[in-house]
Write a structure and sequence with these properties.
alpha+beta
């Protein structure tokens, strides 16, 4: 076992000061991912700064009808919250699609965003991995990569981000609130919080050293908007997505007033489908139009030897989810 220091923070500033005093430290929330990586030797922090007892465990309604979700709110509490279930059903469904009930009872909202890839090469110290050891190579490119990225990857990393919740937050236009010490805060769009790998795959997010995730801000839902989360996986529960989709749809007189579409399981971060959204905005959501828009988005993909199956899988998930929300399944009375 590698020795490490332990600090139980009682305030945000105390946590930030402890981070500055212990180079290479990590913030500890539920620990459901970090502790596993420490056991494997992937993470070797010199100190753990426990932020689980900070006053960040509240789900609070905002004056404009949105929600502020504290970073230490547990996944099970967030999924079961009445306001989340009624106003943001795709978020509740995404949370219930991930992990087990026991893990959701421990895992935090902030930790969910900061969890690291489940790529086997990242977790195996005997294999090369640029994310774990920059410059060592990517073992997955010529190895086992059936579950890996088809969008936004680089020669340095083809891993995918595992979070279901993050995909829902990207489609909901949520923001991540960060505390940087000395009272400074900033917000980052959830869709931009995670980075594509580029030539620096060791950096998962845009978070700066020492910053603490304090909350997720959910904007008020548009009146009449509907939403859905769909996930394809190899078994019925406790499995990461091969592909997933989060959709928010707002129709006006049979045409798309606004649509938000995000894919999971396809890239290094939740993939917001800007091309498909632009094509569908103002259009009648006929299945042919939806399929063409989704295909235009997925045309950017660069599948590898063993994971091209993800493209038709993602297409079917997206088209089916949009059809369900729009009432355009074949045979539906609302079909154009």
């Amino acid at each position: 076992m590698r020795p490490f220091a332990y600090v139980r923070a009682t305030s945000l500033q105390e946590a930030a000061d402890a981070y500055a005093a212990h180079p290479g430290s990590r913030y500890l929330g539920g620990g459901t991912n970090l502790v596993d990586l420490m056991k494997l030797g992937v993470e070797t922090p010199g100190a753990l700064i426990d932020v689980s007892r900070l006053p960040l465990r509240e789900i609070r309604e905002l004056p404009d009808g949105g929600l502020r979700v504290g970073a230490t709110v547990r996944g099970s509490d967030l999924a079961a919250d009445p306001l989340v279930r009624t106003r943001y059903p795709l978020l509740s469904r995404a949370l219930l699609s991930g992990a087990s009930g026991q893990l959701r009872n421990v895992a935090t909202t902030g930790g969910n965003l900061l969890q690291r890839t489940r790529c086997g090469y990242f977790q195996d110290l005997s294999k090369p991995c640029n994310k774990r050891e920059p410059g060592s190579g990517c073992g997955a490119r010529d190895g086992l990569h059936r579950d890996h990225a088809v969008l936004g990857h680089s020669e340095h990393c083809i891993a995918t981000h595992p979070s279901d919740m993050a995909v829902a937050l990207a489609a909901l236009d949520a923001e991540v609130e960060l505390y940087g010490g000395a009272g400074t805060t900033r917000s980052v769009a959830a869709a931009e919080f995670h980075r594509l790998p580029g030539d620096r795959p060791e950096h998962d997010t845009v978070i700066r050293p020492g910053e603490i995730v304090t909350a997720v801000i959910l904007p008020a839902p548009a009146p009449g908007a509907v939403s859905l989360y769909r996930k394809a996986r190899e078994r019925a529960s406790y499995a990461f997505a091969l592909a997933s989709v989060a959709v928010v749809l707002d129709l006006d007189d049979g045409r798309v007033r606004r649509i938000a579409l995000a894919f999971g399981g396809l890239a290094h971060r939740p993939w917001r489908a800007a091309i498909a959204e632009a094509r569908l905005t103002g259009a009648v959501p006929h299945p042919d139009a939806v399929r063409a828009a989704v295909d235009a988005e997925l045309a950017q993909a660069k599948p590898l030897r063993d994971n091209a199956y993800k493209l038709p899988l993602a297409r079917h998930l997206a088209c089916d989810a949009i059809a369900e929300l729009a009432g355009t399944h074949p045979g539906s009375p609302a079909t154009p």
